[in-house]
Amino acid sequence: MAYVAFFSLFPALAVGFTVFGLVVGDNADLQTRVINSVNDGIGTTIMLVLSAWSVQSVNGGLWRDRLDFAWVDAFNDSVWVYAAQLGAEAVKLGFAEVQYDYVRFPDEPESRLAAAMFAGRRPGETKRQGVARNLKLLGERTRRLGVPFTIDVFGLTTSAPTDMGIGQMWEDLVTTADVVLPMVYPSHYRSEERRVGKECRSRWS
Q1: Of 32, 37, 59, 95, which sits 20 to 30 A from 170 (CA to CA)?
Q2: Cα angle vertex 5, ends 3, 34, to 5°?
Q3: Secondary structure class of 6 (helix, strand, coil)
Q4: Torsion-angle region of 69 (φ positive above 0: left; ψ -120 to 50: alpha; else: beta)
Q5: What DSSP assignment string belongs to 45-76?
Q6: How far apart are CA 21 and CA 6, in angstroms?
Q7: What is the rounded distance in angstroms from the CA atom of residue 55 to the CA atom of residue 22?
Q8: pLDDT at res. 11
Q9: pTM
Q10: Which range, 36-45, 85-94, 118-127, is most confident?
Q11: Any bridge partners for residue 64, and if so which?
Q12: Do 19 and 35 meet the contact criterion of CB atoms below 8 Å apart?
């Protein structure tokens, strides 16, 4: 089976949510068909839709992170429903699995997030609760398609005692998804914390 990952399906806003990988079945022309669909303007349509669901700035316009990327509002269930609809389209094309990435909030300091407005947030809701609520929604809709519900998560979720400000808690993730894939980057771990030697750090940096 071949693996196809679309990391720029929705320019800029994609970085915020629903960057997904797709596992290709035996259909040899699937990759070409998907790429042609994106080139035919699907990406533009998605960009316009997600803009209305994006995190807004208290100063007006879209809120942006330190890399100047805009993010969609992970509290907004419409974002997750739309992700499931995209997954359904992929399954109709013949994909055997839909893998969702960036199922979280921005990993930004609170000082920067102070200017962010999350219109989809329910009264008193925490980021962890928002992610858990919408992961359940996404999982229910994905499983109806007859395929596994797979998510990529921040690697530190396997050991962190909190949601790290991004809404991901290991206990929530593994009890909701069929497959959980921690994305482990050695640069995320301090050497004194994980006993990573200089050789390993230089090799992976």
Answers
A1: 95
A2: 90
A3: strand
A4: beta
A5: HHHHHHHTTBPEETTSSB-B-TTS-B-B-TT-
A6: 6
A7: 26
A8: 30
A9: 0.76
A10: 118-127
A11: 70
A12: no
Per DSSP, the three-state class of 43 is helix
CA atoms lying within 13 Å on the CB side of residue 13: 21
Determine how many CB atoms are found less than 10 A away from the CB of residue 173. Answer: 21
Report the distance separating Cα 85 and Cα 31, nearest Å. Answer: 19
| Cβ proximity of 98 and 31 under 8 Å | no
Residue written as tokens 């100063």? 59
Give dist(CA 180, CA 137) in Å, integer.
Answer: 16
How confident is the model over 119-145, as pLDDT tens digits?
999 999 999 999 999 999 999 999 999
**CB of 121 closer than 8 Å to CB of 150:** no
Q: Residues 49, 41: contact at Cβ < 8 Å? A: no
Q: Report the distance separating Cα 191 and Cα 186, nearest Å.
A: 9
CA atoms within 13 Å, Cβ hemisphere of 88:
14
* Separation CA 35–CA 43 (nearest Å): 10
Dist. CA 200–CA 122, nearest whole Å? 44
